[in-house]
Amino acid sequence: ESETVITKCRIQGFWTVKCFNPNGTLAWKQVYANGITTGGINDLLDVGFRAQSQKTAWYVGLISNASFTALAAADTMASHAGWVELDNYSEATRPLWTPNAATGGAISHTDTIDFTITSTGTIRGTFITSVNTKSGTTGILWSTGLMASANAMSNGQTLRTTYSCTITPE
Question: Taking phi first (over 0 means left), then psi (-120 to 50 degrees means alpha), and beta for anything else, what does residue 16 get?
Fold first, then answer.
């Protein structure tokens, strides 16, 4: 009799970000993976194995290209020296990520998470956090994702994002 033993698992998030012009035409598209922060992993373990308080909502934020140097596993909402949040969109708070039930080791959502751009800016990436306050510094930073290249945005454009997260045995 043999047993299969999983020695490690991989947690990975995936983003699709599309930028649409005011007339509805596609300006650009990026598909990319993201990393999970140490704080995000610690929160997952604490909630799953220690019955700590579950976060009941998660929100999407944008990473600016201004002053960008790097993402780090140690980044938190209170301390992320390599990047700043991009908040030039009309939504009053960070948009809510509403995932469907997990299946097959993955969780994702059906609808896009949209941002209505209000002024010129350059996006470098995205993140997931447990607090909806634009440019806020509290809450759990679950993940950060970096696009292959920075992308310009201008007033009237709309970003439509999707996010999924998988945990796979290796």
Answer: beta
CB 75 within 8 A of CB 144: yes
- For residue 133, what are the CA distances in angstroms to 33, 59, 110? 24, 9, 23
Residue-wise pLDDT for 39-88, tens only, equals 999 999 999 999 999 999 999 999 999 999 999 999 999 999 999 999 99
Are 86 and 123 a contacting pair, CB within 8 Å? yes
- pLDDT tens, residue by residue, 75-127: 999 999 999 999 999 999 999 999 999 999 999 988 999 999 999 999 999 99
Give the containing element (helix H, strand E) for 41: helix 38-50
- The 8-class DSSP code of residue 74 comes to T
Strand runs (DSSP E) across 54-140, as ranges?
58-64, 85-86, 96-97, 106-108, 113-116, 121-129
Please name which of 126, 56, 57 lies closest in space to residue 89, comparing C-alpha atoms.
126
Which of 77, 72, 87, 150 has its CA nearest to residue 117? 87
